[in-house]
Each structure stands twice: as C-alpha cells, then as structure tokens.
Amino acid sequence: MHIETDEYVLDQQVGHLLRRANQRHTALFARRFADFDLTPLQFAVLMRLREAGPLSQNLLGRQTAMDPNTVQGVILRLLRRRLVDRSGSDDDKRRKVLALTPEGLALAERLVAEGHAITEETLAPLTATQRRQFLVLLAKLS
C-alpha cells in the first residue's frame, strides 16, 4: 500500500508491519516450543536436515539464511544436545558434514506437526486464498 503524501505513517510501513507479524509468529513459536527448548534457528536446522539429509555446514547456513558465525553457534548447541552429528566429508576432509542423529531425527519428526500448527496460527486471520497469496509474495521478498 503506497500513500501519496509527505506523511510518514508508521503503521503503513513494510518494516514495521513485518516486525509486528514476526513478533506474533515468534510468540506463537515460543509458546508451542517451550517444552522442546529450541530456538527458531535450531528448529530451522533440524527441519532442513530432515528435509535434505546431510549437508555441509556452509550449505546448511546458506539454506537456512544464517551467517557463518550464527550457524556455528546453532550447530554447537545442537551437537551438545546430540541432535546433530558432524563428520568429515568423503570428498574433502576439511569440509564438515552435518546430519541428524537418530534422536535428532525422532525429534524433528515429532516437531513437524508443531511447525504446521504454528504456521496455521500465524496465518489464522487470513482466508485460504490470502494465505496462498501472502506466502507467494513473502517468498518473492526473501
């Protein structure tokens, strides 16, 4: 929505609206995931590894939109919890490959329904058509 005026109305600004929507989603995530002791980034790693299988740490970071320092910290916490395993690549021993442990896979499988529920709750104010449209448009922005 673009308003032809010199006024700057905060409630009509994309950054403000995205931040408010993210706050809503984050609150829903925190409530649903309190018992699992996972952050949204840790959840993203578990889901990506569940979906894609073993990945190099570099590729995992790119696929989850995390910079190298952030992904390093997330991986260290998941390694300590024995949800992820790290090993050398068959092609290049300097490259580290990450994979879900059996415990990590079991947790990831259990969390799929929770992930769907958070998406449903986040998008609840929208109609089915609006949800599809919103997700397509949001993907274009990311």
The side-by-side strand order for the widest beta sheet comes to 1-3-2
User: What is the CATH-assigned architecture?
Assistant: Orthogonal Bundle
What's the order of the H and E elements? HHEHHEEHH
* Biggest sheet overview: 3 strands, antiparallel
**What count of domains describes the coordinates?**
1
Q: Taking Cα atoms only, what radius of gyration do you get, to the nearest Å?
A: 18 Å
- Fraction in helix: 55-70%
Name of the CATH superfamily: Winged helix-like DNA-binding domain superfamily/Winged helix DNA-binding domain
Main CATH class: Mainly Alpha
Number of strands: 3
Could you list the spans in which at least 5 consecutive residues all have pLDDT below 50?
Answer: none
Q: What is the terminal-to-terminal distance?
A: 19 Å
Q: What is the count of DSSP helices, taking H or I runs of 4+ residues?
A: 6
Q: Tell me what portion of residues adopts beta-strand conformation.
A: 5-15%
Shape descriptor = globular
What fold name stands as the CATH topology?
Answer: Arc Repressor Mutant, subunit A
* Average of pLDDT: 93
Structural class: mainly alpha
